[in-house]
Specification:
The chain has helices at about 5-15, 25-30, 35-50, 75-80, 90-100, 105-115, 120-125, 150-155, 185-190, 190-195, and strands spanning about 20, 55-60, 65-70, 105, 130-135, 145-150. The protein has two domains: about 5-70, Orthogonal Bundle (Arc Repressor Mutant, subunit A); about 95-195, Arc Repressor Mutant, subunit A (Orthogonal Bundle). The strands form two sheets. Strands 1-3-2 form a three-stranded antiparallel sheet. It is an alpha+beta fold and about 200 residues long.
């Protein structure tokens, strides 16, 4: 396939997937190297931006996803009759921040930082797909550990955790003594389920 055909094929893959797809898989499907595949996807993203498309391509670590642009959320919702999700509570944002900046972490660690029981909030964040279980700590009782997900990256429009804003005075705090790191967001980010809604073929 020539460059134009490869770009069209990559667009078809991203559109049909509907979920974040690894660059490795895109490259395999196109029969090219990962470096070339990444450049094709990035060029495609630039083309969508240039023509003012209602779609965009998000990069999340080693994955890419095609989704609708935030400014068209209400229009898409009106057609699909999708119910607006309840925005995240302040407690949920605080727990999410603790997990994001310290992962992997246990429930006990989160509760030690916040000073209150977090069972319900953690369960809610797991259900929303923003955090997930990622193993058990090798301690008595083998407590579960949690980490953020690809949906977390998509919700906050960042490619990797390295793009999180730095913690204030991070060098003066450590472990459970560090302050709760704030995640700046907006109501649009709170309504993550459709704002970054996927397009499926």
């Amino acid at each position: 396939m020539n460059a134009k055909e490869l770009t069209a094929a990559a667009e078809a893959i991203l559109f049909a997937s509907g979920e974040p797809i690894e660059l490795r898989r895109i490259a395999q499907a196109l029969g090219i190297g990962e470096g070339q595949a990444e450049q094709i996807v990035l060029n495609l993203a630039a083309q969508l931006d240039e023509r003012g498309s209602g779609l965009q391509i998000l990069a999340m670590e080693d994955k890419f996803q095609m989704c609708t642009r935030p400014e068209y959320v209400d229009t898409v919702r009106g057609v699909l009759e999708v119910r607006r999700n309840t925005p995240l509570s302040q407690a949920a944002f605080e727990v999410l921040a603790v997990v994001a900046y310290n992962q992997p972490v246990t429930k006990a660690f989160v509760e030690q930082v916040r000073g209150v029981d977090c069972s319900g909030v953690i369960s809610s964040l797991v259900q929303k797909g923003l955090i997930e279980e990622c193993g058990r700590l090798e301690l008595p009782g083998r407590p579960l550990m949690y980490q953020t997900t690809a949906d977390f990256l998509r919700c906050f429009s960042i490619r990797s955790l390295e793009e999180l804003p730095p913690l204030p005075e991070a060098e003066e705090t450590s472990g459970a003594d560090q302050e709760e790191p704030p995640i700046q967001t907006s109501e649009e980010n709170s309504d993550f389920s459709l704002e970054q809604s996927t397009s499926k073929g």
